[in-house]
What we know:
The chain has seven helices and eleven strands. By secondary structure, the protein is an alpha/beta fold. It folds into two domains: 188 residues, 3-Layer(aba) Sandwich (Rossmann fold); 62 residues. The mean pLDDT is 95.
Amino acid sequence: MTGIYDDPWAYELACAFRDVPAEVDAVLGWCAGLGGAAPRTVLELAAGPAEHARAFARRGLTATALDLHPAMCAYAARCASDDGVALEVVRDDMTTFALDRRFDVVVTMLDSTSHLMTLDAFTAHLTRAAAHLAPGGLYVLEMSHPRDRIGAEPSVATEWTVERGGVRAAVRWGGEPLDPVTQVADDRVVMTIEEPGAAPRTIRDLVPYRFWSATELDAALRLCGELEKVAQYGDFGPVALDDPEAWRMITVLRAAR
């Protein structure tokens, strides 16, 4: 049986509620305001279908997408080619990668750090990201809002529907309780896809999810010692992390001085 990450097209469809162009615009705005210069190069880590990397490339940046999953890498490269945008795709681990260059902006989106199961792995990831920042570069790290797992009112729904190009999908993702010791949950994924002229198909999967709190992020940064916070937001718009409307935990980092 294949899972959601074995079907990059379905994964991208499940995330179609995201406004990727607007999110990329927000990141570029932060770079201009906080970094002081418009970035020319970008690296997306744990990129999956590399939607953000492709959007950066459409804006003229030299873009690289890195992911461990071969199906995701192949899909990202194919989509970039079909779109006519230049994208380098690298298959590698977000905790050990070593490229031969640095980037003006590095991004990790869609709470991909939830795949890092230990503090050592999280710290290793931060260290590798820091090593690939050009002077004055920024690392934008998007994680789920802490209230999603430890608050009484989650910030995002665990069930939603999306429609794109005549295809409709009903998605259920997560909501399972965390193990109180490991802070890991096996998130159940059920996605039913309805395409015109075809019988509905359903993808079922269990995706291990490691919850990272804001204080654990701070601890990992201290252990890494190579990055410092520049700003933190609760959305891709002007929303503070503690705002009731906040639904993400987005941290902007730079090389420690």
